[in-house]
UniProtKB/TrEMBL annotation:
The keyword Phosphoprotein does not apply. It catalyses: holo-[ACP] + malonyl-CoA = malonyl-[ACP] + CoA. It comes from Hazenella coriacea. This is Malonyl CoA-acyl carrier protein transacylase. One of its GO terms (molecular function) is [acyl-carrier-protein] S-malonyltransferase activity. Residues 5-283 form the Malonyl-CoA:ACP transacylase (MAT) domain. Belongs to the fabD family. Its EC number is 2.3.1.39. It comes from the Bacteria.
């Protein structure tokens, strides 16, 4: 069996999708109309350095991931057995499974990116070297209860999220620990996947309730529950995803428990491939 995984924010890079826009001219034109700017120019040239800004990053990655998937299906002539995506990438997984068409997915992602980018004053950081229990213990012992865990990326890579001042306060505490190999502040303006996204979640909930979704043709593994999506809960699960943690490690463990499983990353970069390798090493001992 094979699972296609789609990357999220952090995998964007100038030049991504360079060969794809001319192959999918009709969809590129659709994207330009929805977004109000040239998606090809943003991804390939990034003349104003917008690609790292959330409201631009999310639509750009969605488009490149979607084109990469369509290209892969053209080449192979068959669909994967499962799909999953990391945060924003989950929209590409749902697109691949037929929950919505390209245009609908882009409208959802555009709104999501706008709402998430409007939340300022937050910060996130990746803690490399500690597992989730150890991170929780450090937060508790140092009374850093205003910080949430945002991503369970791999057994030894946990992302924390909170007010920027609190993340700054946590930095020397984590760095002083011998087990911590790296503490990496992320280039984001908001505390994504945390309690601080509640207002954005409520606004997105009102927006997404205006959409109907098609039956899923492929099982999609949810970031929130690390289990396949329930058809009748697509709206609520996507809404919850904004302020709940990304359960990536558990999602991969679930998929590996289905039997002999190969994973292929669809989109720019190899971030997820690296995380999956670390999860596998941890399972195999």
């Amino acid at each position: 069996m094979i699972t296609y995984v789609f990357p999220g924010q952090g995998s964007q890079q100038k030049g991504m999708g360079s060969t794809l826009f001319d192959e999918f001219k009709e969809l590129t034109a659709q994207a330009n109309e929805i977004l109000g700017y040239s998606i090809k120019r943003l991804c390939i040239e990034d003349p104003y350095s917008y690609l790292s800004q959330t409201q631009f990053t999310q639509p750009a990655l969605y488009v490149v991931n979607a084109f990469s998937y369509l290209k892969r299906i053209q080449e192979l002539g068959r669909k994967p057995d499962f799909v999953a995506g990391h945060s924003l990438g989950e929209y590409n997984a749902l697109f691949a499974a037929g929950a919505f068409d390209f245009e609908t997915g882009l409208r959802l992602v555009k709104k999501r990116g706008e709402l998430m980018s409007a939340v300022t004053g937050g910060g996130m950081a990746a803690v490399i070297g500690l597992n989730e229990e150890q991170v929780a213990e450090v937060l508790q012992e140092n009374r850093l209860d205003t910080i949430d865990v945002a991503n369970f990326n791999a057994p030894d890579q946990i992302v924390i999220s909170g007010r920027k001042a609190d993340i700054d306060q946590a930095k020397p505490i984590f760095e002083a620990l011998q087990e911590v190999r790296l503490f990496i502040p992320l280039n984001v303006s908001g505390a994504f996947h945390s309690r601080y996204m509640s207002a954005a979640k409520l606004e997105f909930e009102q927006f997404i309730n205006g959409f109907q979704f098609n039956s899923l043709s492929i099982p999609v593994i949810s970031n929130v529950y690390a289990r396949p999506y329930e058809q009748e809960k697509i709206n609520t699960t996507l809404t919850e995803q904004i302020n709940k943690a990304v359960q990536w490690s558990e999602s991969i463990r679930f998929l590996m428990g289905r039997g002999e499983m190969k994973f292929e990353e669809i989109g720019p970069g190899t971030v997820l491939t690296g995380l999956i390798r670390r999860i596998k090493i941890n399972i195999d001992g």
